[in-house]
């Protein structure tokens, strides 16, 4: 999906998503507790959307920076959560947007929308923006989702579910393949609107 099409799709998606409310995802609640336990003070959220998964971190004293391709979503975030949170406008495929390093990175339900090269780039760029001993956590849809195998086949475990919406479905082997070199230490299963993996990595050294 090119950036123009992705922004068009996400603008429309975000407008519908806002109607779902502002309660953080179950994944965000789990990771909030994890980050508090680990003493994380500042995080980056690539694909921050309109901020529903950000406020729970701010409410617990964690500084949040976001990246978001949808201008509509950024305006909604400012409307509902104030203007004190830095949100870089652009695609996560164009990271980095600053030279900062973060104690934690939380990327929710985004990585599976990217192709293989984009996923590799996102993982590497996130890892490079972590402080040593920092944590990055991705939520990714799994092959147990009811949409797996539906739509137009693109490549192994990747399908075009709707026009312009291409989705890669992870199993534990593909998680290990993509994340084992960036400090993967746990794959946790969580079910929300879809079955997800929480993919947890810790930075011990530079790539």
Describe this structure in words.
- The chain is built from six helices and ten strands.
- The protein has a seven-stranded mixed sheet, with helices on both faces. Strands 6-7-8 form a three-stranded antiparallel sheet, with no helix packed on it.
- It has 207 residues and is an alpha/beta fold.
Whole-angstrom Rg: 16 Å
How many DSSP H or I helices? Answer: 6
Percent of residues in beta strands: 25-35%
Which sequence of strands runs across the widest sheet? 3-2-1-4-5-10-9
* Mean pLDDT over all positions: 89
- Which H/E pattern describes the elements? HHEHEHEEHEEEEHEE
By secondary-structure content and strand pairing, the structural class works out as alpha/beta
Helical residue percent band: 25-40%
- Overall geometric form: globular
How is the main sheet built? 7 strands, mixed
First-to-last CA distance: 28 Å
pLDDT < 50 runs, ≥5 residues:
1-9
Number of separate strands:
10
Strand and helix map with partners:
Elements: H1 3-17, H2 26-37, E1 42-46, H3 55-58, E2 63-68, H4 71-81, E3 86-89, E4 102-107, H5 116-128, E5 130-141, E6 152-155, E7 158-162, E8 165-168, H6 172-179, E9 184-191, E10 195-202
Parallel strand pairs: 1-2, 1-4, 2-3, 4-5
Antiparallel strand pairs: 5-10, 6-7, 7-8, 9-10
